[in-house]
Amino acid sequence: MTMTKTASRRTIVITGGLGNLGSKLCRHLLSNDDTPPKVILLEHPAFIDASKPPPHPDAAIVPCDLGSPNLNELEAILSGDVDTVIHFSAVNPYPNATWGESAQSMDHTFNIFQMAVKCHVRRVILASSNHVMGGYKDDTSFGPSSVHPNSPPNVGTVPLDPNTLKISGDAKAYAAAKLAGERMAMTLGSIYGDTTSFVVLRIGWCQPGENLPDTLCAAGSPPEFLLEAEDGSANNNAGMSEGDAKDEVWFKQMWLSNRDYLQYFEAAIDLSVPTSEMGAPTINEMQQHVHRHERKGFVLVNAMSANRDAKWNLDETKRLLGVVSQDDSLA
C-alpha cells in the first residue's frame, strides 16, 4: 500500500532545486499536469541569482544551506502539507569531489532526511548515482544486464587513462556520499516506513540542457567541471587514447535521457513501497540479502536509459516503477 496525505494539491520540495536535475524536474512537474503540484525549490543562498528567473514562474525558491540549516526554518518548510521531498543537493555533484566535499554532501542528506521523518513527509526520493557501482566498469566477469540494484556496492569510476583521471577524478568520494545516503534511507525506512518511505534512484549521466548522447565523453563530466591538468589541457580533445575509447562506451551505456529521467522520478513519487517487512528472513537470507533493494519503507532501483549492452539491469526498474525506457545512446 502507499501512504497518502489528504491535500487537494500536493506540495513537493526539491533540494538543489536550481541545479540541472532540479530545474528540469521542476519545469516538468509544473507544466505537464492538469493539477500541478506546489513546488518549493530549496537552494543554497550562494547559488540564488535574483536577476535570473526561476525554472518555472510558479515555483517558489527558498534559500537554505542544508549543510548547516536553521532547523526551525527547515522544520517550518516541511511541517506543512509537504507530501514529497526530492533530494539532489550536494556540495560537488561531480566525480572530482574531494573527501571534504563528500562529508559535507552527507550532511545535506542526513539533515533533510531526518527532518523529513520528523515532519512526517510521506515520500523521500534520493537521487543516488551510478558511481556507487562504478567499480564494475572494468570487471569482465560482469556482462550486459548483470549489475542489479541489490548487487554489492563497488564505489568509484576510475578512468583507464591516467591523464583523464587527473582532470575528472575517480568518483570514490562522491560515490561514498551517495552510498551513505542510500544506507541511511534504508535504515530510516525500516524504522519509520509506515509514515515516511524512501525511494532511491541510482541515476545515470543526465547532462545539462538537451543531454544528447554525442556530447558524452570518457571524462564523465561536462568540460566546464573538469580539473585542469598540469599542462593546462583540461579541454584538450586532440586524439583519444585506448583507455578513453573504452571508457566512453561505459559512459554512453549509463546515459539517462531527459525523457527517461523525468518519467522515472515522476513514477517514484507514487510508487507503492512496502509498509512492513515481507516475512521474517532467516539468518542465512539476511547474510545473502544485506543489499536487498525492496524492504519496509525502502525501494532502490537502477535509473539509466536502455542503452545497448549496458551492464545495468533494468528489470526491477520496469517492475517497480512501471516505466520502460524508450531511449538508447548507442542506437
Describe the structure.
The chain has about 325 residues and is an alpha/beta fold. It has nine helices and eight strands. Strands 3-2-1-4-5-6-8-7 form an eight-stranded mixed beta sheet, with helices on both faces. It starts with 10 loop residues before the first strand and ends in a 10-residue tail after the last helix.
- Distinct helical segment count: 9
Q: What is the typical, i.e. mean, pLDDT?
A: 90
Number of strands: 8
Span between N and C termini? 38 Å
Multimeric status of the protein: single chain
Q: Which stretches are low in confidence, meaning pLDDT under 50 for 5 or more residues running?
A: 1-7
Radius of gyration: 19 Å
Strand content: 5-15%
Structure class: alpha/beta
The share of residues in helices is 25-40%
**Spatial strand order of the main sheet:** 3-2-1-4-5-6-8-7
Largest sheet features: 8 strands, mixed
**What is the 3D shape?**
globular
The arrangement of helices and strands along the chain is EHEEHEHEHHEHHHEEH
Tags for this model:
9 helices; 331 residues; disordered N terminus; eight-stranded mixed beta sheet; alpha/beta; globular
